[in-house]
Structures are given as structure tokens and as C-alpha cells.
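User: Second chain of the day. Same drill as before.
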Amino acid sequence: MKPVKSIKVGSIEVAVWENTSKEGNKFFTTTMNRNYKDKEEWKKTDSLRVDDLPKAILALKEAYHFAAIKSE
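Assistant: Same format as last time:
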């Protein structure tokens, strides 16, 4: 399954997922990761450093904007 929207700001990635409730109503959820390289391998974590917070805020604002418009 792929997200309906993926937002990247530096090493921060926010994905917006479209879901359907049992009643058939559509709604959105989000996941957020920080990508980093460990030796030669790319990895993901949900742990953020202080310097990541402004990037996370920007990505989450864009995710909210996307979901709010799609929900109208």
C-alpha cells in the first residue's frame, strides 16, 4: 500500500494515508520518520533530534493542509 501523499523536508518524511472506516467513511492518518545513514545502509526511525523539530513542523503542516482540503 502506498501513501496518498509523501512530504519530505530534509531527513524528515511524513506520509498521509487514506483509510476507510467500517461504515465506509474515508479518513486520513499520518506517519512520520527520520531517515539516516548507518555506515552504508539507509534506515528510518521515529525518534527526532531537536534540530529535526522545525522540519517536522513544516512537513506536518503540509500534511494537515493536504488532508484538510481532501476532507472537504
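The longest strand covers residues 26-38.

User: Great, on to the next one.
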